[in-house]
Amino acid sequence: MSDDGLSRRQYLSTVGGTAVTVSLAGCFGGGGGNGGDGSTEITAGTAPGFPPFEMKQDGELVGFDIDLLEAVVDETDYTLAGWEEFEFKSLIPALTNENIDVVAAGMTINDERDETIDFTDPYYSSNQAIVVREDGDFSPTSLSDLSGRAIGAQKGTTGESTIQSELIEPGNLDESNYNSYGNYVLAVEDLQNGNIDAVVIDEPVAQTFAAQRPVNIAFTYETGENFGFGVRDGDDEFTQALNDGLSTVRDGSTYQDLTNKWFGQQ
Ligand code: ARG
Fold this sequence. Notes:
The chain is α/β, with parallel strands linked by helices. It is built from 9 helices and 13 strands. The strands form 3 sheets. It has a 6-stranded mixed beta sheet with strand order 1-5-2-6-13-7. The structure holds arginine (ARG). Keywords: Signal. It comes from Haloarcula sebkhae.
């Protein structure tokens, strides 16, 4: 379960900045077509490069979010027509523009996003982790130790907001020391290459990178984030259906099975 099989070039050409349609049973972008059996078709959007939630494996989009959303939609009267891939920061615009109908991308529920979109009930919790090179001599134990160092995160994420609000705004880090990336794989590669000294990233994803690459979690920073599926404001019937589907999947064995599958062996 890694992006390791993809070179940076292949990765970029796959993800790029624009949407790539990976699989479409029927070509309905947003708004919903007809599933053939009368069900409404919906299209999901994600941002791969965030293992084990979503990543490309041999060209295929896989991960916990992919399996979980598919299991949840299976419990509803909707049909998942397919997945589209975006950079993380383009997901909310894609949702509001009706290019997609739901976001499954380890997206943290927060007030700022809640002003533009809605979220389902939470399905996973996370804090931020600070990742460093395994063989390096830099072993920070708190955010203030990051002062004066080159730090990276993915554009538009809560990792980036943590750097902004906890380091740059209080004057502990110069803006020029912050490097933002289109995805976290590129950030971690730059860390491995020695171009930056630390990456701020969601803890479960940090654990996955640490298991697959020569990087370590130096420390974690408690943010108490909850991930939810992003839906359009006002799409209340659909949101309710997803919430019902989510609780069914949680009550049965599916949620636990998927957790074991994607987070089990690290
Ligand atoms: N949880 C963080 C956020 O919501 C990071 C999510 C990044 N997700 C991704 N698929 N790249 O901002």
